[in-house]
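Sequence in, structure out.
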Amino acid sequence: MAIFKSKAVTKDGRKWYFSVCYETANGERKRKKGQLYLTKQEAQEAERQYLIEVKQCRIDITFEKLYHKYIDYVEDSIKGSSKYCKDNRMKNHILPYFGKMNIHDITINKIIDWKTKINKAIYGKNNKKYSLKYKQTLMAELRTILRYAVDFYGLKENFAGKVMMFHDKSEEVVLDEEKIRYITPDEYNLFISVIDKMVFKVFFAFLYYMGVRKGEAQALDWKDIDFEKNTVRIIKTVTNKTDELNESGIKFKITNTTNRKNRTIKMPPILKDMLLELYQYYAKHEGFDRDWFVFGGYRHLPNQSIDNVKEQSFKLIKEKYGKEINRITNHEFRHSHASYLISKGVRIELIAYRLGDTVDVVLKTYAHLFPEVEDSVIDELELIQDSHKIKLDIKKEF
């Protein structure tokens, strides 16, 4: 099964066709070559429809080859970083077990056996087990590929859909009780006070005050900053989940924001002043222009440098102030921003827009914080009620 480009092209530009080899129910092998289509996608859809009509077909192919066919099929609809992650999950956890198997030989028992091995698998220096969420992602990947085999390769049934999802009760309890970590404004002030290098000080301030993702901050250039309107345009992100090398031989790629949630958001005066100071610093460098990265100049700040400065700052807080605060991740500066807005009663629609998320995602992520806000609202309503009662009592006396 494959899509080909014909050397001969029709007058109206049709040049794509499919060619499939399949086995009928009685074991007879046949090949079908489709007509010419305008686009590759049309040829793929025609191929799919043909195989649906030939219900008894069976196309023998290994799981590994099937996966590569699937990636070729969806390459126009997924981001490079998504493909990179899929490839890693497949290469490390699914292909070693299923790769050489004929897809028609993958049974429920074999999938259960694979599940058992994944449950026992460990990684890293600390021999950690994979999280429940990660294991469920692996199962979802397996189900997706086998569903593709049902649609295109005559697989009779997607047995991965019959096998229960990973379900670790002990781990699930931990996940249910675990709340997102964040730092308060006072803790943030301690953190930022121990950072000496200007670019890192402004970088972490940007994460805290704007609630953007780390990659979105790394991808910013000076054209994205409007000092007159006090706004920042978030339209791209940096990803290291790629095999592509840039001109400097560094692995990274500028791509669309998560879920393509582009937005323009306001910055507070304190952050504007910090960015102006950073801009004036870079403007003194030879060759400076507004295409430079806001954080880093010629190239964006490297992940390792960001992590090193962050961890060193947490240590300095303890040494300088004798205090320990939550050692949050870079992403949890985003949580800190959202938590602060929630505590101030900001409308959830505005929070979702600022974060570049949907309302549903914000509710799901920060659900445990909203009851606290609701309590404060009830307290305020009770004060109003008490005040109203006082006025009524005064009227009674007259």
